[in-house]
User: What shape does this take?
Amino acid sequence: MGKITQFSASKLLGEARADAAMWNTEPSASDVARTVEKVRAHGVTVIQAQDAESAIEALKNLIPAGAEVMSGSSTTLLEIGFDEFVNSDTCSWKDLHRVIAAENDEKRRHELRRLSVVADYFISGVNAIAQSGEIVACDKTGSRVGAWPFAAGHLILVSGTNKIVPTLNAALRRVREYAYPLENVRAKRAYGIPSKIGKCVILSNEEAEGRVTLILIDESLGY
Assistant: This one.
């Protein structure tokens, strides 16, 4: 089961006033199966994971030792224990977050952050998955979604089934009415500044076979 962090949805809902009953419900097994089928039809590989532990194991199996890895800010990744693993002695990947953090020159650090979207493997959460197969994510600056359309060699998306909604229009509404209010509270608590919906990506079709993988976890995770 995913762990609760200080930035999990349950810790932010009161201030965010987001409608969890509307936008954070568990879909039926048939809705999950239909969504998986449609996502695969859009060129995305889908790995179904029972829980957070299974999701981490799937990541380990997907990414070879020594690979260059970058991840976007994601409550889902925090809740499945990704940060603990990538910062542990057992992780053999080249974590670009460490490379960026070790750079003292601000201009060079900014350049490294820009270059990180072309990592061999980019790992990201998502904001919504439509049963019609589209996957949606938004952020303030583009640091998370910039890798999605083309830049990253391999894009691995990690999501709980709670992100599944009936249509693409509902997915975009989920971003504005649920994910954004929660992220805005998180940003103010973490950085002292509000967030914005600045850049959005709709992954509707992937032409490069095997480039994009969705790890879909049968739990309620992130927002």
